[in-house]
């Protein structure tokens, strides 16, 4: 199906473990984004990517690693998960960097991560 | 001043009421503005973009006030199905990205 999909949708892990959240989009959008959403903080940008092999830090990048070897995939890795990384993670994409009425940000369904 | 601020609510209104939300932003250079709707435990979905001249989509009207640096969302004839959290989004820190407000919760009751 076309669209943006995230996996896993739910994940429980332990402190110190490595976790990778996957994001796949079928629109061939150039831009992809990772946000986290927490009570009291709203949506915060972790990393984003303008194209394959181009990534940039967002507002809260510490503790996360991203890669973009293919346009359609943008995995987010927590190399050593901490309890403070318990959150809902949303992947999003857009066709260009010039966000406007004609080019908007579209979100995946989210990945709910719990770190014990 | 935070980059994007919204009143968290909740706004409790009866069906048929008109309700308005505001969202203030700090960066006067911001160019793109949006309203997203988020249902409980779901992803944000675009409700509407906000244009300089204001725009309307059915019962929803969005306006931009650059002088005072805020955007607004007006919902007329509220429906039960309008109950959700409304997020405003502005491009600020990085040209290609959006910064979101924390959202305003709307509860429409029968």
Description:
The complex is a heterodimer of chains A (116) and B (110). The model of chain A has no long low-confidence stretch (mean pLDDT 93). Chain A has strands spanning 4-7, 10-13, 19-25, 31-38, 42-51, 54-57, 64-66, 76-78, 87-94, 106-107, 111-115. The radius of gyration of chain A is 13 Å and the shape is globular. The N and C termini of chain A lie far apart (33 Å). Chain A is 0% helix and 50% strand. Chain B has strands at 4-6, 11-14, 19-25, 33-38, 45-50, 55-57, 60-65, 70-75, 84-90, 99-100, 104-109. In chain B, strands 2, 4, 5, 9, 10 and 11 form a six-stranded mixed β-sheet that branches. In chain B, strand 6 (55-57) and strand 7 form a beta hairpin. Classes of the chains: A mainly beta (116), B mainly beta (110). Chains A and B meet through strand 4, strand 5 and strand 10 of A and strand 5 and strand 10 of B.
Quick rundown:
The complex is a heterodimer of chains A (116) and B (110). Chain A is mostly beta strands.
Query: Which residues of chain B form runs of ≥5 with pLDDT under 50?
Result: none
Q: Return the average pLDDT of chain A rounded to an integer.
A: 93
Biggest protein-protein contact in the assembly: A-B, 27 and 23 residues
Q: Mean pLDDT across all residues of chain B, rounded?
A: 93
Compressed to H and E, one letter per element, the order of chain B equals EEEEEEEEEEE
Q: From the alpha carbons, calculate the radius of gyration of chain B and give it in angstroms.
A: 13 Å
Low-confidence stretches of chain A: none
The main pleated sheet of chain B reads as:
6 strands, mixed
Content-based structural category of chain B: mainly beta
Determine the number of helices of chain B (DSSP H or I, runs of at least 4 residues).
0
